[in-house]
Automatic annotation (TrEMBL):
Pfam families: AzlC (PF03591). It comes from Flaviflagellibacter deserti. Belongs to the AzlC family. Keywords: Cell membrane, Membrane, Transmembrane, Transmembrane helix, Transport. This is AzlC family ABC transporter permease. InterPro entries: Brnchd-chn_aa_trnsp_permease. The chain crosses the membrane at residues 55-73, 117-143, 149-168, 197-214. It is found in: Cell membrane. It is a multi-pass membrane protein. It comes from the Bacteria.
Length: 218
């Protein structure tokens, strides 16, 4: 299954998130509800980090919104591949959209039409997988220790490097990746908070838009 490497990579992070949430006083049910309703690991980690009693709802909401703004860009990109999806399937597809699902679906769409069967098989599998390990993490995650000690922190990065290679279409791809990486790195150092995620995405989009007319003219 195309999503299996990502599903395996989220295991230690799901356990770690569950353990961190439990240390803040969240129950397995609350952790499961958070993952089931939000399904966004990065914003969940930020939310757990900010969690206090009483919870700072405004700060939590703003942080989640800021981090997940990239989903607007991913939705705009993947929506053009939903030609065979019914309206209700498109709505559900956006709900289970995650970075890994987007990347795998886009890669699939390069070689053949994206079907509801493929999309939901990958999306639902990763969704359930994430919920299972985060809930188990409330009990077992503390035993994992620091995932960096075993190199698990690089798992997501390695997956996306492999996916980017699959998207490679010549020098235009290289310029887009370079622009995104450079701008994201600069913003991450200069501005506090996760603004670098949105800045890097917008920089890559800008470079792709600028280079497109030139390539067509050539």
């Amino acid at each position: 299954m195309a999503i299996m490497p990502a599903a395996i990579a989220v295991v230690p992070f799901g356990l770690l998130l569950g353990a961190a949430a439990a240390s803040k006083g969240l129950s397995p049910l609350e952790v499961g509800l958070m993952g089931g309703l939000v399904f966004a690991g990065s914003s969940q980690f930020v939310a757990v980090d900010l969690w206090t009693h009483p919870a700072p709802w405004l700060a939590l909401g703003f942080a989640a919104l800021l981090i997940n703004l990239r989903h607007v860009l991913m939705s705009a990109s993947i929506s053009s591949k939903f030609g065979s999806f019914a309206p209700w399937q498109k709505t559900l597809a956006v709900f289970v959209l995650a970075d890994e699902i987007w990347a795998v679906a886009e890669r699939r769409a390069l070689s053949q039409p994206l079907t509801p069967a493929f999309y939901f098989a990958t999306g639902v599998f990763l969704y359930v997988n994430w919920l299972v390990w985060t809930v188990l993490g409330t009990v077992l995650g503390a035993a994992m220790g620091d995932p960096k000690a075993m190199g698990f922190d690089f798992a997501f990065t390695a997956i996306f490097i492999g996916l980017v290679v699959g998207f490679w279409q010549g020098r235009r791809t290289g310029f887009v990746i370079a622009a995104s990486a450079i701008v994201a790195a600069i913003v991450e150092k200069a501005v506090e908070g996760p603004w670098y995620v949105l800045a890097g995405a917008l920089a890559g989009i800008a470079v792709a838009a600028i280079m497109a007319p030139a390539e067509k003219a050539a």
